[in-house]
UniProtKB/TrEMBL annotation:
It holds the Pfam family DUF4430. The keyword Signal applies. Residues 1-20 form the signal peptide. Gene3D superfamilies: 2.170.130.30. It comes from Xenoophorus captivus. Residues 53-133 form the Transcobalamin-like C-terminal domain. The keyword Protease does not apply. Keywords: Signal. InterPro entries: Cobalamin_Transport, Transcobalamin-like_C. It comes from the Eukaryota. This is Transcobalamin-like C-terminal domain-containing protein.
Amino acid sequence: MKTVLLLTTLLLLLPSGTLTRSDEPVPIEVLVKNSLLNNNPVTYRTEVVPGWILLGAMRKLMDSDVNFKFTYSDDPHYGPFLESVNGLAGNPEDHTYWELLVKVPDGSIIRPNVGIGCYIPNENEQIIFNFTKW
């Protein structure tokens, strides 16, 4: 009982908001790149609330920038699957697809082990959608 009372007292002494995450938006970039044609990449900027999944950030970006479009399908086993970006779709016959990469603040590029439905962007990351072949 004394432990519960002590913990309750300590929680009351903490500054307001200490135990909650910030809902202040953080900036991210989305880079759309076509490795097969070596076109100039196009960069889009948006902000996301910490904890948002990438798919939500993409929807927000599409709603706020008429130049950014995407489509996806829902796979019953793997979740959302990115099909097209800005009108360019992957094609199984051509072995083309949209690869998800992330440039983290230290400059290194990672390949997340999750897709657009589970990846949670962090502040100042650059999300890279790279059209390529497998």
